[in-house]
Amino acid sequence: MLAVNQLNISIKTRRLLQDINFNIQPGELFVIIGPNGAGKSTLLKALTEEINYSGEINFQQQSIKKWTTAKLAKTRAKFSQHHQQDIPLPVNEVVMMGRYPYFASKPNLTDLKVVSESLKLTEMSAFKDKSYNQLSGGEKQRVHLARIFAQLNNEFQEKLMLLDEPLNNLDVYYQHKVLEAVKGFAKKGNIAAIVMHDLNLAAQFADRILLLKDGKMVKYGNPKQVLTSKTICDVYDFPCKVMSHPLAQTPMIVFGEEKSTSIIQNINP
Amino acid sequence: MQTKFKWYMSLGFILLIVSFIASSLLGVYQLNWNDFLLLFKSIFDDTVAVNPTDAYIFFDVRMPRTILAIIMGAGLAVTGTSLQGMFKNPLATPGIIGITSGSALFAAVAIVLGSTIKSFLPEILHYSLISIAAFIGALLVMMLVYSISFKNGKTHVVIMLLAGVAIAALAEATTGFLTFISKDDELRDLTFWRLGSLGAANWPKVIILLVINLVSLSFLLGNGKALNAMMLGEENARHLGIKVKKYHAKIIWLSSLVVGASVAFAGTIAFIGLIVPYILRLLLGSDYRIILPLSAVFGSLLLLTADIISRTTLAPIEIPIGIITAFMGAPVFILILLQFKKAL
Q1: Are B233 and A80 in contact (CB < 8 Å)?
Q2: Which first-to-last residue range defines the signal peptide (chain B) (predicted)?
Q3: pLDDT tens-digit map of A63-119
Q4: Closest partner residue to B240 among A89, A105, A151, by Cβ?
Q5: Interchain pair B225, A100: CB under 8 A
Q6: pLDDT tens-digit map of B19-31
Q7: Is A204 part of any domain?
Q8: Is A241 within a domain?
Q9: Cβ within 8 Å, pair B285-A83
Q10: Which domains does chain B carry?
Q11: Is some CB atom of chain B closer than 8 A to the CB atom of A100?
Q12: Which domain holds residue A124?
């Protein structure tokens, strides 16, 4: 279980997060949404101790600060929002970095197998010997996703995968592919926390959604509880309508103003 | 990649053995292959009779010099590779960012000011006096450059390079000034510092440098994984369980130690740390797990070859080795700059 209790973060006088509380159970895919500057990435940074915070973060009933670096490297992985563009190595060597916590100087057979499985998962197998630097933005992103999956491929229970906007450069096909893979990972008794902007994808895949605005929790619950017309319109300050997704039967959010019928009549007399 | 690595490693070792033999035979005093075999045999077998002059030239002149070149070359190249990894830039080498200059500056001050106390100290301590000064100089510059050019895990390349220029200018000015006020024997020492030479090699120096470099390299050569992970950015490296700050501290201290000791014994020999990793990267890519051990072997090879060239081309005159390495290194430096221009 990942339990966040009274989490507060401020830099100088600016409060980035205020009184954040939530529990995530193993097996759950947890999605953090909210407008720009809501504190989504900051929350993930707190979960990886990249930023100073007050309050408690307990992971598997133990304060995350008490975990050893070596154990955490095999139990928790993070996909960062920004990636280095210049890594002069072949793709499979970048993915192999995800196995660095597991071997001293030479990867063993398991490590090699895990790397090729992870490449298959993000459909990057064909690129394995290509230079990372020659890939497109979306391909680079899939390389790092494969690296994250490789890092958490082990016998441990209740692992934590943190993904900060993993879908940004991906097309519809890979957005779904990646979310399905993450969902599959969570289903095995792990926890996945994703920051994303696409509310409809969040509605389709999330078990729990945390909606943030200006560093505060607006709502926390399952997609149906969080994604209501009133909340979304208020938080994003944009007209919207929540319907039911005709295929997935999940909430579906449509943004925009309703056009007056007279204009439509003018187009189709 | 593993097979390629093994292939280059074997090639490096073979070339190193060839240069080792060449270095012990070539010179004003000619030795030939049979002399070499005989001298080599005499190490293990006391009954083998050898010409005492041959033995002196071989064991007390050429051997220490050759071995010093091998140890020093390995140390300088590995240091260069480690710094490049830490600063994430191919120009971050001890020479270019001013560590060598800073080290030489402190050593020069120690030579001139230390000459009064020097006569009271035993020989081994007098080497270490200069070595300690050179180490402190290297460490101070290293920390200065690190603190001003490294911010939030990113290197400010321009500041890093300009720091090197500034420190080199200061070192040049100070050594120039010291040249004016120094006595004759100190002057000879100072000239040797500025251009670099392995001519003063002897066994005590070999042993001191051997100990320093063995210790330092045993810690630096295993950093391949950490340096690779740092290419992902510092935070991402940390998520992989790499204690980035610890590695940085390790690289800063050990590089200073290696550069300081090398400067103390051979003056400023530039560009070894730049040329070797550059060429290895061109041939094999940037995996530090491969580049680090190979740079040790090829660094030895390069410095030893440069030393052979320096003392045989214009024999009996020796060209300072710094001039030879600068002739090899400057074009590489320009090539890297041209690549930068393309990347901009």
Answers
A1: yes
A2: none
A3: 999 999 999 999 999 999 888 888 999 999 999 999 999 998 889 999 999 999 999
A4: A151
A5: yes
A6: 999 998 888 888 8
A7: yes
A8: no
A9: no
A10: 1-343 (1.10.3470.10)
A11: yes
A12: 2-231
